[in-house]
Amino acid sequence: MRIHVTELIDGDRLSGDAFNDYGLHVLSKGTVLQHDDIAKLLQHKIEFVDIEQRQSPGKSKSQARTLESTVSPKWLPIVQPLYEIAVSSFKDLYKNTMNEGIIDPDQISDVLQPLLNNFQLERDVVSLLLLLNTEDDYTYQHSIQVGMLSYYLASWLGYSKEEAVQISKAGYLHDIGKSRIDPAVLNKPGKLTEAEFEEVKKHTLYGYEIIKESFGEEPYLAVSALQHHERINGSGYPHGVRGEDIHPVAKIISVVDIYSAMISERVYQKKRDMLFVLKELYRLSFIELDPHITQTFIKHMIPNFIGKKAELESGEIGTIIMTHPIDFFRPLIQIGDRFIDLAVERDYVIKEIYL
């Protein structure tokens, strides 16, 4: 039975091997497909597969609508305006908080929920970041990105949809304490003095205070603002707590906070390549960040690089067609008729990833 990939449902069994357009083996005959397997076929741009006859018809049509969004960024005309509205609204919220000292809860729900409704249909997080990340309004974009990535990572870790939405809200508000920091210090292009850095670190305490006053004991919010710069080895701030003393949701936000910050252009820092940053997170997962949370993030992000363009430091541009099962950060790239396995040919280095 030959079927389009967007019509597959969990439990379908492949009756033949699945190969992508480059002849690379993706899934084996007999594989009982689950959500991640179907996503993998889509990421390899495989349109049709052969499956064994189904025992029951299932509900393929509703699932097809969900899976279709990963085939191409048709959602961009819808999501981009919502994203821009969210950035603009967060700027207003930030300024209101600066002036009034508290947050309007309704303002957050009105902006964040429509954005989340669309993010819930899109699993290609790398495309979202590439398309929506710009050099403008870092402070506000960063908060939106951390909210978005917190939602995805919480979902990948097995939190319920309701919990993931609340964790997204915590990510959205994690830096709200910066509204009490002098903008001249926050946007200083040069190195901060010791006194300036000590003041910036207080944004975690300020955020905790603002959220407690605005939301009371609403789950995850205040503690995430307080602890998102704490590290499992005790090297973080504001209190230098370690390990299990750091709230699990604060650990989630720590990972995506670093990722968003490093892939973004800032007044004092050039953005880094998205694969390079994942490699840096992997290194930190053995020192400062929770290893399970960090490596779950990496595991789910890596397949989204398949099909993306990669510019090498040599100036050559190719397409990522396969990620390495062990050396995640050095994929197989096709340039014209030539294939370069970066895991083998170590002299090649990726400079930038784009659509």
Automatic annotation (TrEMBL):
NCBIfam families linked: HDIG
Pfam families referenced in this protein's UniProt entry, alphabetically: HD_5 (PF13487)
Matching InterPro entries: HD/PDEase_dom, HD_GYP_dom, HDIG_dom
Keyword vocabulary terms for this entry: Hydrolase
Superkingdom field: Bacteria
Name of the protein: HD-GYP domain-containing protein
EC number assigned by the record: 3.1.4.-
Alphabetical list of SUPFAM superfamilies matching this protein: HD-domain/PDEase-like
Domain HD-GYP residues, every copy: 117-313
Molecular function terms from GO: hydrolase activity
Gene3D superfamilies reported in the protein's UniProt record: Hypothetical protein af1432 (1.10.3210.10)
SMART domains: HDc
EC main group: hydrolase
